[in-house]
Amino acid sequence: MQPKLVIVLVVGFLVAAIVWFSGVLDQHLAPGTKQAPAPYSGQTQRVGSEPVVAYEAVPGQVIAQQNTKVAARVMAQIEQITVRAGDRVEQGQVLIRLDEQELTTQLQQAKAQVQALQASFTQAQKQLKRAKELFVQGLISQSDIDAATANHDNLSASLQQAQQRQQQAQIALGYATITAPISGRVVERFAEPGDTATPGRDLLAIYNPQQLQLEFAVRERQAVNLKLGDMRQVEIPALGVSQASELVEIVPAADSASRSLLVRLAAPQNAQLLPGLYAQLQLPLPQHEAVMISPQYVYSYGQLDMVLVVERQQLVRRYVRLGRVIGDQVEVLSGLRPGDEIAIDAKPSRL
């Protein structure tokens, strides 16, 4: 046999063996292999883009335009506090009574001193008048006149000072009864009967519920486009309130740290509105093109959102990031492009 023929036969035998063992000639799938999925033949919807107006949600809070802290002007023990947090008060209503004993004693002492000095001053007036008469008659010298005049002037000054102290003691006694400076509602009570009230220490906090506002720190780029009288949408989630409110105040100074300006809007008329409640201001952003789809085509898995798209007639999971819900559609921020095909009839369980 020719050597070349032997080589050809050996090579042919090896190729046949490799083909046989590789399973190319086998009509059945090997165990553990997965059959290719069938092409998707259901309905689809082509994704497009459309112009939308997005809104920036600016966080803020309800504030009281008129609020005040009630404090004592004299140091004394608290005898009675007539209100608690949540109570409504009228301007001039008695809120707190302090112990008047020490203040009354000080007033009585001041009065007694004034009476004593008044008697001495009256006597000094008489002496000065008599000294002047005697001096005219030549019975006393000029030095006697000078002494009588000095005594008269000293007692006059002392009497004036005593009268001022009496007036101050009278005013201090009046401070023992503390009344409401405004009509409103008590926010908090900082002291109890038996405590010692000192000047500058807050005892009560009161606000006027008829003068509430909404306050927001708006980015300076947005704030410079606002003007007084603008109507903007505001929301108070805790009360389910959403309405347009008027811009009533813009603080004319920017915060250098946050690069924002404080703006205040009129608060909604709601009996449940309270200072400190969370609020949101909706400010429109420039119009832009966005991919919008129906939320029914979005499937959520924990914090992930997914849609089914068709690529080369096959279903493919596509994870997306969603934005605002506008009407009956939701904005897709990433994960879908205009022209993609969404599978309408498919469900994730089929994959």
Automatic annotation (TrEMBL):
<dbReference type="InterPro" id="IPR058792">
    <property type="entry name" value="Beta-barrel_RND_2"/>
</dbReference>
<keyword id="KW-0175">Coiled coil</keyword>
<dbReference type="InterPro" id="IPR006143">
    <property type="entry name" value="RND_pump_MFP"/>
</dbReference>
<feature type="domain" description="CusB-like beta-barrel">
    <location>
        <begin position="214"/>
        <end position="283"/>
    </location>
</feature>
<feature type="domain" description="CzcB-like barrel-sandwich hybrid">
    <location>
        <begin position="68"/>
        <end position="204"/>
    </location>
</feature>
<comment type="similarity">
    <text>Belongs to the membrane fusion protein (MFP) (TC 8.A.1) family.</text>
</comment>
<protein>
    <submittedName>
        <fullName>Efflux RND transporter periplasmic adaptor subunit</fullName>
    </submittedName>
</protein>
<dbReference type="Pfam" id="PF25973">
    <property type="entry name" value="BSH_CzcB"/>
</dbReference>
<feature type="coiled-coil region">
    <location>
        <begin position="100"/>
        <end position="172"/>
    </location>
</feature>
<dbReference type="Pfam" id="PF25954">
    <property type="entry name" value="Beta-barrel_RND_2"/>
</dbReference>
<dbReference type="InterPro" id="IPR058647">
    <property type="entry name" value="BSH_CzcB-like"/>
</dbReference>
